[in-house]
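Structure first, sequence second, as always.
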């Protein structure tokens, strides 16, 4: 992530790593808002109250992931699929971050973040996901050489990074294991055979 102070054209840049809460929460909002701000639509980030300040301040971040999951309804019901880079290398998700003076563990400062999303109607793989009647969306994935560029991008250049991922992605079904009922959990052996 990059600091909120911003960088002038002559200033040096250094990456900073921090832990954060998934779901961007501005300083004025209740922490429960995080459940609604996991993703930020790039078409509206400049005007939505939850995201506009972080966008305007260029609080850009990168969320590293090994893979991510999306539902497909090709069978008529939701089936979770795992998506990753075809070569198995980590993916870099473009995001925004926010800082607030409290709300973290022991009421310490809290960093929160959101993933940016774009329309995926034309993406060869990502157009398969989500409900048939819903708009197709995908997270903004950066190529490795774009990471530092994204973190340092001037606001007017940021939209050039908000496009479909050109690298090859691999997707495969990854259904969640069925949850056990409370009765099943209680009747399960504790690991001892006798």
């Amino acid at each position: 992530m990059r600091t909120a102070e911003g960088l002038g054209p002559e200033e040096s840049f250094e990456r900073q790593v921090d832990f954060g809460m998934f779901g961007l929460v501005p300083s004025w909002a209740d922490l429960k808002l995080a459940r609604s701000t996991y993703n930020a639509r790039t078409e509206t980030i400049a005007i939505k109250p939850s995201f506009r300040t972080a966008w305007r301040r260029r609080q850009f971040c990168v969320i590293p992931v090994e893979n991510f999951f999306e539902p497909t309804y090709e069978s008529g019901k939701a089936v979770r699929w795992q998506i990753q880079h075809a070569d198995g290398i980590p993916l870099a998700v473009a995001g925004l971050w926010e800082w607030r003076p409290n709300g973290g563990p022991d009421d310490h400062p809290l960093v929160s973040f959101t993933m940016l999303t774009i329309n995926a109607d034309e993406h060869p793989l990502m157009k398969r996901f989500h409900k048939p009647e819903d708009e197709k969306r995908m997270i903004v994935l950066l190529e490795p050489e774009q990471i530092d560029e994204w973190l340092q991008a001037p606001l007017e250049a940021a939209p050039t990074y908000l496009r479909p991922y050109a690298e090859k992605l691999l997707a495969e079904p990854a259904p969640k294991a069925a949850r056990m009922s409370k009765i099943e959990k209680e009747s399960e052996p504790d690991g001892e055979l006798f």
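Margin note: The first strand starts at residue 21 and ends at 22.
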